[in-house]
Amino acid sequence: MSFLDKMKNEILIADGAIGTLLYSYGTDCCFEELNLSHPEDISKIHRAYIQAGADIIQTNTYAANYLKLQRYGLEDSVKEINSRAVKLARQAADTSTYILGTIGGSRGINPNKISMEEIKRSFREQLYCLLLEGVDGLLLETYYDLEEIETILEIARKETDLPIVAQISLQEPGITQDQTPVDEALKRLEVLGANVVGLNCRLGPHHMIASLEEVELPSKAFLSAYPNAGLPSFTDGKYHYEGSADYFRKSARSFRDQGIRLIGGCCGTTPEHIRAFSSVLKGAVPVTSKKVIYKKQRILAGSSSVKRIELPLQEIVKKRPSIIVELDPPRKLGTNRFFEGAKALKAAGIDALTLADNSLASPRISNSAIGHLVKTEIGMRPLVHITCRDRNVIGLQSHLMGLHTLGLHDILAITGDPARVGDFPGASSVFDVSSFELIEMIKQFNEGLSYSGKDLGQKGVFSVGAAFNPNVRSLEKAVKRMEKKISCGADYFITQPVYSEKLLLEIHEATKHISAPIYIGLMPLTGSRNAEFLHNEVPGIKISQDILDRMETLKGDPVQSKREGIAITKSLIEAAANLFNGIYLITPFMNYEMTVELAKYARIYNERLLRRKQHAEIIIK
Fold it and tell me: Which of the ends of the chain has fewer CB neighbours closer than 10 A, N or C?
C-alpha cells in the first residue's frame, strides 16, 4: 500500500534530523559523504528513528547534488553518494517503512547568487540517481525561494509518478521570502502536482503551528510539518538545540488540529522528539475540516507616518541642473577640516554632500554619524553611501533603519571594493547581497517590509542612487547593468570619474533611452603621481593618455599641477553640462578648495547655459 493511501485514514510519523545527530557525534564536514566513509553511522540513525516510531524515513541526501558537493571537491561523486544513501536506508528499514529520496533547496536569502539553469541541471542529476535506486517517493525540503521549488517540482512531476512531498521554509511566520502568504504558496505547489505540501525548518512548533492556522486543508494533497527543535544555542564553539521532546509531545495535538497528516522533525530534533510525536499521534484520527484563522494584513495600508519635506535628488535633477560633491569622512578622529569643507561647499550652492562608506576598504568615521551632523548642524543634504562589503543582511537592515530614524533618506547603494584592496587585506568581505539586492532591500523598506517580509510598522521614504561605471571595455554591458538596477528600483545614477570628452559623448549616446537621471562623476587631478595611481591602480578609473602627458609635464610643481587638474575638470564640466543635468564632483584627498571652485564654476556655467537656451527659444518663437 502506498503511504498516500495510508494517509487517507491516519497520521504518519516521519523521521527527524540526520545532520544534527551526525554533528553531535563530532562530525563537522560533508554529512552526505559519510554514506561512503561511515555508512554504519547513517544506518544507526535510520534504525533509531524507525525504533522511535517513524513510518517514513528520508535518505541522507539533502545536499548530495553537484552545486553543494563541489564545495568539498565531491562533485563527481553525486551518483555514488545518492545510490549508497538509498541502499543504507533500505537496509535499515523494515517491511512497513517507506523511504523518501531527499533533495534540499539551494537558494537562500539571496536567490540571485545561483542561476535557475544551474539549479535545474544539478537537480536533474540527483533526481535520476534517486529514482534509479527505487525510492518510495521524493521529499523536497527547505526551499526558501518559491520560484526554485516550483521549478524543480515541475521537473520532478514530469519524470515520475511517485508521491512527492514538497515543503517550503519561512523566514517569517505565515509568509514566504517573496511575501507570498503561506496558504497561497502551498496551493500553488498542490496545483503543480505535489501530493503532500507543508513546512519544514527555520520555525519551531509555536510559529509553525501559527503559520498553519492560516492554511486551508488542500483539496487533493495532504499537509505536512517538520518543525525545528526551537532556536539553536552556541556554547563553547558548538551549536546545540535545547527544545525538549516533552514540548513536542505537548504540541502534537495542535499539529493534528491544523490538519497535518505527515509529521516529522528538522534541525535539532532527535529520535526522542519523534518518539514524542509518535506517542500522541500514532493511530490518531486525522481531522477532515478546520477553521482557518486569517491574520491581520501584514503590509500597512495608507501612507508613511514619516513625511519627506525635501524633493528627492532624482526629482531635482530632472527639473534643473544639479551639482553634488563627495567629501569623504575623515580617516582620523579630528573633524575640523571636514566640516570646514562641508560649510564651504554649502556656500558654493551644491545640492548634496555625498559621503562614501569606507572607500577603498579603509576605515573612516561612520558616514551615518557624519551625515547626521551635516544635516543638523550645517543644514545640508547628505547622500549616504552603503556598501555590501562590511555588513551582513542583519547589519544592512539595522543600518537602514538607523538612517531612516536619523532622517537620512538619500542613499547610494553600491557593492563596494573588496577588503583585500584596503588597509586590512585579511579582513572579511561579507557580500551577503550585491548592489542589486541592496537596492531591492531599500525599496522593500519603502513598502514597509523588511528583507524577510516582516512588517516594519511604517513605510520608508528612501530615494536610491546606484553606481554606473562607464570606464569599461563594453559600455553596452555597463548599460545593461544600469537597466537591471532600474528594474530593481534604482531612481538615479552617479558615475565613476570620467576623464574624456569623447567618453562623455559615448555615455550620452548609449544611455539616451534611460529615463533615470545620471550624475556624471568628475574628480580633479592633483598631480602626475595621482593621475598615474588612479589610472593604474584604482578599479573603475581610466585616464586618457593626453591628460596623463599634460600632468607629467608639470611633475614637481604641485601648485601648477592642481591648477591644471582644475582646468581639465572645468573643460569636462562644460562638456558634461551640455549633455547631462547632473554633475558629481569628487574631492581628492580633502582638497575641498578644488571642488568648491569647481562647484561654483559649474553653477555659473549652468546658469549661462540656461540663459542661452532660453534666448534661443525666444528667437525661435
Answer: C
